[in-house]
């Protein structure tokens, strides 16, 4: 059994994510953003814009990295319609769980560039605090994802947190300390909330 078949068999052996669980995974990057961005209090607007831009760039790079698999899936796997069907097919074809989250959001948009705005909309409609939401992400991953998928998703969230923290750096001309002590503590808290 090759790794693709093993991955497929493991996913098929578990119930797939519900729409509510999928939405929780989609919103996770924004909980990470806010955990880091608001670590030292309310950030100034320019700093927060830089942090949002860092998140947007990371999400867009994930979407682009998965482009080949997405193309194949869209051609071959249209038997299970809808967002969750597309997500399942993407994962079965080798995308990471996080790539599937990003790509399915982009697929729902008229223009792929709008997917960040779509994620922001989903986030704005969610009333959970970051701590609660990230703990639920960990629970969902434990119940529904393979250990490899869960680890990959959590690592993606921590990478996003690091990129957001680095974007907020206030060093002169890009020099100096980029990540504050409060942001480091926030990254550690995110790691704990995700049960890393």
Average pLDDT level: 79
Oligomer: single chain
User: What is the distance, rounded to the nearest whole angstrom, between the alpha carbons of the first and last residues?
Assistant: 29 Å
Q: Biggest β-sheet, characterized?
A: none
Strand content: under 5%
Tell me the helix content.
Answer: over 70%
What's the total helix number? 10
- What is the radius of gyration computed over CA atoms, rounded to a whole number of angstroms? 17 Å
SSE arrangement, N to C: HHHHHHHHHH
Indicate the low-confidence ranges by residue numbers: 1-13
The number of E-state strands comes to 0
Shape: globular
From the helix content, strand content and strand pairing, which structural class follows? Answer: mainly alpha
Tally of individual domains: 1
Summarize the topology.
Layout: H1 3-12, H2 19-37, H3 45-65, H4 67-76, H5 83-92, H6 97-107, H7 115-124, H8 130-144, H9 147-167, H10 181-193
Helix pairs in contact: 2-3, 2-7, 2-8, 2-9, 2-10, 3-6, 3-9, 5-6, 6-7, 9-10
